[in-house]
Amino acid sequence: MRRARILLRACRPRQWVKNVLVLAAPIAGGMALHPQAIGQMAVAVVAFCVASSGVYLVNDALDVESDRAHATKRNRPIASGELPVRTAWITAIVLLPGALVISALLNWQLLVIVAIYEVVQLWYCLGMKHEPVIELTSVASGFLLRAVAGGVATQVELSEWFLIAAGFGSLFMAAGKRYAEKRLVQETHVAIRPVLESYTATYLRFVWTLSAGVLVTTYSLWAFALRQTSTSEWSVVSIIPFVIAMLRYAVDVDSGSAGEPEEIVLHDRLLLLLGAIWATCLLGSVYL
After folding, report:
1. DSSP secondary structure letter of residue 74
2. Which end of the chain is more exposed for a tag (fewer CB within 10 A), N or C?
3. Which ranges of 106-133 does DSSP label H, i.e. alpha helix?
4. For residue 259, what pLDDT band results from cuts at 50, 70 and 90?
5. Residues near 110 by Cβ (< 8 Å), separated by ≥ 6?
6. What pLDDT digit, counting tens, does each position of 207-216 carry?
């Protein structure tokens, strides 16, 4: 039982919060409350939970030596020695194909999306994490592919506005995380990841600002386009909490806490409240 708990911790279940992005397209497309769509979304979420856990195990097994020299990563189950590297590899070998099997049970499109996710993330683990810009877009692709997966799982047509907003929203979160890490390195002089040496804070702020601007613009255009196809004004109203939530998230990132996006969201109650208000407005625009 103890070994199972350690293995579960190595799979990073806290990171599974990211998989709520799978729900974005079905909600926006008005399919989220359909009984069949609920099952389809559940399959997609499970597939990404399994796939991402397999990737985390591979990453930690490959980085076990460097993690042991890191101030906080040395406490991870593999680096600390609680979980043998061999066990991590065996579990990953089971989880990664398992995620493909789960997605194939639904449709071939989801299988393709999950396969692309695994390839890109394994590519990242095997060396691209040290390549500036490439690693940034690889991290962002993980968020984007989750959002796309929800659409292909429920057969919801993905509009150009949704894809652009999801893409630049993903880049906003990835660049924000790197910017916060860079700030932390400058203040504490503690190494976090080697690739940060290739970035300047001004460059990361540029990418962060650019992606935020495109995200707000495309989301606003989508909201006004949605109003034209319905009698509801809630889509336009949702722009207000959406922008305020983005600005609040930016405050947390700019503080240099360098937390994961899900950690920032879960530990900021006001941000959670803003997210709930935004989600309510969005649901109202689609379902009322």
Report:
1. G
2. N
3. 108-125
4. low
5. 43, 44, 47, 103, 104, 149, 152, 153
6. 989 999 999 9
